[in-house]
């Protein structure tokens, strides 16, 4: 542990950089509450989406890094703001018109359009927890409804009433004049309609812990700020929650970064110490648009898991959190193969520093498995393409000839990936395949490669066959990449592909000869 802790103190991996910053927070004395609190927030206005998973995964990576650096216990809270009023009806739920009459009600007071839970908020909370549990996250779930109603928030809410003027000054500075006229940090929930009311306060009684305002339906109302009768506007709620829980670390998307000073000021005014922050870039869909849980664009967690393992998604989340990344289906094969490359690199390295800098340490919390992926996901997609594979057994036919010792029992990663690859090929690769006929130079090169393979009696391994492919192309193509582009476009119907020697080793020399014959006869392009 000593060597690992020493390596962690200088590791350039971003979770360790964040963890060291957090460690400085308690260099003089440990936290009075007895643990360091990590928090993630979730707005359950739509179905949980992949960005939510990314936030929890990345926070967990920082938490694991901190646990190497320090013996202080840690806790992760996942907080759902399910008292938030439903401002618009999501477009990706059944019978959306039935929700229209419930606009502005807290999400936990809106009927569940799926008919499976007590409310829409409860449904989305359950979806979030199911997803998080799929990945084995260790967390405490807190519902805003329960937090407000149970009394856990009462002390801070009463302090909000006592320091109302100071909190309002912080907020009013950030608002346009028109909004200042009607703004209040408190949002009463109407006792009859159940709607969240955006009304100015006529009086805030710190001693009684009540607010008085004009009811939009007529008359004056006074309500306690405790017990779930009133909620805080979302920006004050952010800072107040930090103060109430004693939050030490929270990361969020860059859209929150501009409000960071407001959240911090609210927290300080309420007697809390703002947490350490980490702002990450947003995910983009295939059109370069921000992924939104209400519009359902991009890739969902369930969709990713249809085509690849949970670990490959965690790997994608680890990579460059400060960089905006496209999150669409075409990133999946690369993530799968890079994840397994990193597994092999981890076990090949004995140096603790190299291991702690490897993404897989952060994905697995130090308990890193061995990879059994002796064939890459990209190669499987090409095998599926040339063999027209409808199930993974077809791929296993090639892979067992290539590696007779391999089986679904001894190589579980490989077996799972074969199933994923067939599914991915049929859904994404097959519909976009475009073969072309070879140019005269390419035709002559393909005929030469065919002739070499017909008489080839060397070892059926990647390197030996790659040398054959190189030798054929070297005299005919400058630059040589034109030869490989021709192989991919003419034989595989794709713009890019695998090391072609490895492909021949897996697919077979005779089978590759037959593939070349089909291409030269114009059958593939047809």
Mean pLDDT across residues: 91
Shape: elongated
Q: Total number of β-strand segments?
A: 12
Distance between the termini: 62 Å
How many domains? The number is 4
The helix tally amounts to 23
- In terms of per-residue confidence, which ranges show pLDDT below 50 for 5 or more consecutive residues? none
Rounded to the nearest angstrom, the radius of gyration is 29 Å
Main sheet properties: 5 strands, parallel
3D structure, described in words:
Helices cover 48% and strands 10% of the residues. The protein folds into four domains: 2-143 and 154-166 and 234-283, Rossmann fold (3-Layer(aba) Sandwich); 284-364, no CATH class; 377-432; 440-520, Arc Repressor Mutant, subunit A (Orthogonal Bundle), CATH 1.10.10. A hairpin with a 5-residue loop joins strand 6 (210-214) and strand 7. The chain is elongated, with a radius of gyration of 29 Å. The protein has helices at residues 2-8, 14-24, 50-69, 120-134, 144-150, 154-162, 164-172, 177-180, 234-245, 260-269, 301-307, 310-318, 332-348, 352-357, 359-364, 377-387, 392-402, 412-429, 440-455, 462-474, 481-492, 500-507, 509-520; strands at 36-42, 74-80, 140-143, 186-188, 203-205, 210-214, 220-224, 230-232, 249-253, 276-280, 283-284, 325-326. Helix 7 packs antiparallel against helix 10 (260-269), helix 16 (377-387) crosses helix 18 (412-429) and helix 17 (392-402) crosses helix 18. It has 23 helices and twelve strands.
């Amino acid at each position: 542990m000593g060597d690992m802790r020493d390596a962690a103190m200088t590791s350039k991996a971003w979770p360790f950089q964040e963890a060291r910053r957090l460690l400085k927070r308690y260099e003089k004395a440990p936290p009075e509450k007895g643990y360091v609190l990590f928090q993630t927030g979730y707005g359950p206005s739509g179905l949980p989406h992949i960005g939510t998973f990314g936030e929890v995964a990345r926070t967990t990576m920082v938490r694991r890094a901190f646990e190497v650096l320090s013996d202080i216990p840690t806790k992760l809270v996942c907080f759902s703001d399910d008292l938030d009023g439903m401002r618009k009806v999501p477009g990706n739920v059944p019978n959306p018109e039935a929700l229209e009459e419930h606009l502005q009600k807290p999400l936990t007071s809106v009927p569940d359009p799926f008919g499976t839970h007590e409310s829409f908020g409860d449904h989305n909370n359950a979806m979030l927890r199911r997803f998080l549990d799929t990945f084995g996250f260790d967390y405490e779930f807190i519902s805003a409804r329960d937090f407000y109603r149970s009394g856990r928030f009462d002390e801070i809410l009463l302090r909000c009433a006592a320091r109302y003027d100071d909190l309002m000054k912080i907020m009013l500075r950030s608002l346009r004049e028109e909004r200042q006229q009607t703004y209040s940090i408190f949002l009463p929930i109407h006792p009859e309609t159940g709607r969240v009311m955006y009304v100015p306060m006529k009086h805030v009684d710190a001693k009684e812990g009540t607010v008085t305002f004009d009811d939009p339906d007529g008359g004056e109302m006074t309500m306690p700020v405790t017990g779930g009768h009133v909620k805080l506007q979302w920006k004050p709620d952010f800072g107040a929650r930090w103060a109430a829980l004693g939050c030490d670390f929270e990361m969020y998307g860059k859209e929150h970064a501009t409000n960071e000073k407001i959240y911090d000021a609210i927290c300080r005014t309420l007697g809390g110490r703002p947490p350490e922050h980490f702002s990450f870039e947003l995910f983009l869909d295939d059109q370069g648009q921000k992924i939104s849980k209400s519009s359902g664009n991009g890739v969902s967690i369930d969709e990713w898991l249809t085509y690849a393992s949970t670990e490959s998604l965690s790997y994608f989340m680890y990579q460059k959190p400060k960089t905006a990344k496209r999150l669409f289906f075409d990133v999946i094969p690369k993530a799968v193969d890079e994840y397994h490359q990193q597994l092999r690199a981890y076990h090949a390295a004995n140096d603790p520093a190299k291991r702690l800098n490897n993404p897989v340490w952060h994905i697995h919390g130090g308990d890193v498995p061995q990879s059994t992926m002796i064939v890459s996901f990209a190669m499987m997609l090409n095998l599926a393409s040339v063999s027209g594979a409808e199930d993974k057994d077809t791929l296993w036919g090639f892979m067992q000839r290539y590696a007779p010792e391999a089986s679904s029992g001894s190589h579980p990663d490989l077996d799972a990936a074969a199933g994923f690859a067939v599914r991915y090929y049929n859904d994404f690769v097959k519909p976009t395949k475009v073969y072309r006929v070879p140019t005269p130079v390419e035709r002559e090169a393909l005929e030469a490669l065919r002739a070499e393979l017909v008489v080839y009696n060397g070892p059926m391994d990647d390197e030996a066959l790659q040398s054959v492919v190189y030798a054929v192309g070297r005299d005919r193509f400058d630059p040589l990449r034109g030869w490989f582009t021709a192989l991919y476009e003419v034989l595989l119907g794709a713009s890019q592909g695998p090391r072609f020697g490895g492909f021949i080793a897996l697919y077979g020399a005779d089978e590759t000869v037959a593939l070349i014959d089909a291409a030269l006869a114009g059958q593939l392009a047809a």
